[in-house]
Amino acid sequence: MFNDFLFLFVVFFLLSIFVMVGVAFLTLLERSVLGYIHIRKGPNSVGFLGLLQPFSDVVKLFVSEQCFPYVSNYLPYYFAPVFGLFLSLIIWLVIPYFGGFFSFDLGLLFFLCCTSLGVYSLMVAGWSSNSNYSLLGCMRAVAQSISYEVSLALILLSFVFLVCGYNLVSFFYFQFYVWLVFFSLPLVLVWFVSCLAETNRTPFDFAEGESELVSGFNVEYSSGGFALIFLAEYASILFMSVLFCVMFLGCDLYSFFFFLSVSFVSFLFVWVRGTLPRFRYDSLMYMSWSSFLPVSLNYLIFVLGVSLFFYSLF
């Protein structure tokens, strides 16, 4: 049993290292793509084609002086970024690796629990900073994440009825012949937009509204604390890209095409950021409760009816 625990610890440590390296190059991809969208040059000086730029940024952030606001609540302020990064890393355990790692029978429920807990790290970070701007940012983040988690949960419930299980391995067997993206195209678009809102990305970056909140919930963070928040956000983006491909694009983690699909979905996150302006806050809430919720509910009822019909036949 000790050897098993040691093996799982080593594998999770290696997984965390690889996720951090993936996040580093995701930031490089984002800055390069945004450079081309803005018709300017992105990072291209540090290393060959700017490949060492993310690592130089990490060194710069972590060796900078850490500042603490005098009126902040020290312990929540200090540990909120650590808790957020921990949640962003532990959520990677639900991906079906087919290699003797973890296999969750209730993986989708674990995913929903981790995404719901991620709201608390934003809320505590904004509240403990004791700043009006950070408090406004965290309140926006909480309302936004709760609103879009409803549509995410209903979409997941539709596919739970379809594949008859909460384990993500079921998506691999169910998509052996044809991908789910061809059967649920409107729902795929709703899922992608909900992922944008869930990860606080443009055009739903109200928690980090630079134009009116000076940086939102992380306005008082510098150096290491800001780096941990940054890593947590981009690890969540990378995970949502992988989960999108697992649910809709085949789930074959040992094919090269799967990783091309993950790269393309991550590119879509960046493309949306370079293309669309920020929503108004009332438009965000209106779209969640008046558009996405009825669509996901209707699709849930439709999938449930189709599933019951075919199970009654066979």
Automatic annotation (TrEMBL):
Protein's UniProt name: NADH-ubiquinone oxidoreductase chain 1
Keyword NAD: yes
Catalytic activity: a ubiquinone + NADH + 5 H(+)(in) = a ubiquinol + NAD(+) + 4 H(+)(out)
Topology term for the membrane: Multi-pass membrane protein
Compartment(s) of residence: Mitochondrion inner membrane
Biological process per Gene Ontology, one example term: aerobic respiration
Keyword Transport: yes
Organism for this UniProt entry: Zootermopsis nevadensis
Enzyme Commission designation: 7.1.1.2
